[in-house]
Amino acid sequence: MNDDAFLRITDLSVGYGATRVLERLRLSIARGEFVALLGASGCGKTTLLRAIAGFVTPSAGAIAVAGRDVTRLPPDRRGMALVFQSYALWPHMSVAKNIGYGLKLKGLPRAAIERRVGEIEALLGLSGLGGRKPGALSGGQRQRVALGRALAVDPQILLLDEPLSNLDARIRLKVRHEIRALQQRLGITAVHVTHDREEAMAMADRVVVMEAGRIAQAGTPEEIYNRPASAFVAAFMGAENMLALNGTVRGEHIHIAAGPHYGAAEVPLDGRALASGALEARFRAEAVQLQAHDAPPATEGLALSGHVEAVSYLGGAWRHSVRIGQTPVFADAEHSLAPRTAVRLTIPAEKLFLFNTPSPSGAAAPADDTHPTATRATRPDRVREAAIS
Predict the structure, then answer these.
(1) Rg for the chain, CA atoms, rounded
(2) Distance (Å, rounded) from C-alpha 350 to C-alpha 347?
(3) What PROSITE patterns does this protein map onto (predicted)?
(4) Residue 3: predicted pLDDT
């Protein structure tokens, strides 16, 4: 582990009965860094967040903040604050009293609470709303109140458990940028759980993709998007098209053997640890160059032959479902091509993600991240959890 890590998780394991949710997970986060835990439901990201907060007891491993072991400390002694997906606001309390709830639990004088609440309201654009109840606020305003309650106690680490998922799409786009700007201005360390890859990339300095209780890959949004470490990460980051290929490594290139619906191609290894044999190719719909079959090739890369099965308009591009032999893939284009049209799909080498196909008994080694810098309906019973400091 890097000694400069502010939040350090070492060999953390969590289980419920015989079910293992986290398995010897390692993660380091720098002071002031915004890290997004990204993954599908059941991957362990929320369990990890709750273990950091102190609401889940690990069966093994350690959690340290600024060199202090907090693994067995109660939530209110960890210097953290948690914002829940449901916001967990008291419906009978005003905005001001909800924001000041954690300060009241700490026993601060009324004048100090009022002063701090006023500062938070001004910081979050809630001035003038202090007397309202949560039911009289918009979703975005309720989210700000929940965030304000967490920030009021001046936490060392801000934990965010999918706090934007209850907002409509338009408001969500606005609020996520507001949270990111606020985090940067305050310099606070933040850990954000989400299943939305666009949200993770827009908000975080570093994205940690989780799979089955382990870290599949950690890096900057650009690294995760452009250099996925596994077929799972590639698919999760939008490269859902998949083809089974065969290739032979020759020096600094891998030669892809021709098949019944695609021609031979050479792709630079570009540092990828590939071996000759069966390959799984992944690529995004927007990376494909789609043309009528008799048009001259638009670019170099892996060329596929197929026919259009269906077309839909996404706004800004037409998405084509194309059948390559027995395999359906998606390809985007500025103009639509009619169903049954014979087409050529070309995937540029830099947009083609290649991975060796694992053997039936093979399993990928666990990926850990130990570098702290980027490589880069209300439930009052939970409000006590949100007020930790």
Answers:
(1) 24
(2) 8
(3) ABC_TRANSPORTER_1 (PS00211), ABC_TRANSPORTER_2 (PS50893)
(4) 56
Q: Is 215 exposed, middle or buried (0-12, 13-18, 19+ CB in 10 A)?
A: buried
Tell whether 105 and 184 lie within a shared domain: yes
Is residue 74 located within the same domain as residue 219? yes
Eight-class DSSP state of 229: S
Both 38 and 18 in one domain: the answer is yes
pLDDT of 300: 81
Residues 179 and 116 in one domain: yes
336 and 224 part of one domain: no
- Sign of CA pseudo-dihedral 379, 99, 145, 384: negative
CATH number, domain containing residue 178 = 3.40.50.300
In this prediction, the residues of the chain whose per-residue pLDDT falls under 70 are 1-3, 298, 359-389
How many CB atoms lie under 10 A from the CB of residue 209? 28
Give the Cα separation of 88 and 101 in Å (integer).
12
- Residues, the chain, total? 389
Structurally, the chain folds into a number of domains equal to 2
Rounded Cα distance, 385 and 381, in Å: 8
The answer to whether residues 280 and 355 touch, using CB atoms and an 8 Å cutoff, is yes
Determine the 3-state secondary structure of 361 from DSSP.
coil
List the CATH number of the domain containing 262. Answer: 2.40.50.140
Q: What is the pLDDT of residue 215?
A: 97
Written as six digits, the tokens of 330 are 């998606």
Q: Does residue 42 sit within a domain?
A: yes
Residue 361 domain flag: no
